[in-house]
Amino acid sequence: MVTEFSVSARPLVEVRDLRKRFGANEVLNGINLDIHAGEVVVIVGPSGSGKSTLLRCFNRLESIDGGDILFEGRSVSAYREHELRQRIGMVFQQFNLFPHLTALDNLTIAPRKIHKTARAICEERARELLARVGLAVKAGSYPNQLSGGQQQRVAIARALMMEPKMMLFDEVTSALDPELIGEVLAVMRQLADDGMTMVVVTHEMQFAREVGDRVVFMDGGQIIEQGAPGAVLLNPSEARTQQFLKRIKG
Predict the structure, then answer these.
(1) For the chain, which end, N or C, has fewer CB atoms within 10 Å of the first or last residue's CB respectively?
(2) Kind of pairing, strands 40-44 and 222-227?
(3) Helix crossing, 148-160 with 103-114: angle to 10°?
């Protein structure tokens, strides 16, 4: 985690007047956001506020209709898709593992097929990553032999195989049983402690408070409020943020 940034340091990601429409529905309406290397940015907000669409625009899973996103000073449109997605890893709500492959093979298939990396090298790296997420003994297991939390940890390890400079997490615990959520959040906490740049869409407010460097509240395709987690989540200045937090706290 990073809490202070040099005023001269250029952000890793620069979002400038970003706009995205689905038909007549403007899902993102003039988003401006900077993300610095090593920062953990947590995005919260109601369903349909544009959170997931924003994440998908970062690595061109969604096209944009206006504005731009710069990654390392270059427009994301200037990257080849595979090049961009190697630099910006993403983990989804659904695990998206190949059911016919073991955990180990799920991790190694992309670098072997795309980068033609030798199997032995890939497997050594994959075993290191499976150990990192607490699944060293599950290398030979198939997805249907793993719990939801274990599958999601495999998905995180798979994204890390490409050695990304930034990780995107889109509601990665929302499909999990409550008792499995903690094991996935623990892996994400460790990534943050290790200095990984992360953008996390979540409803896990405790995680946002404890791990985030900054919380961004979105609604109606706009950023309504952003700042330190304690400020935004405990003492928000905007009425819409207050309303949202009151509602989710019951």
Answers:
(1) C
(2) unpaired
(3) 20
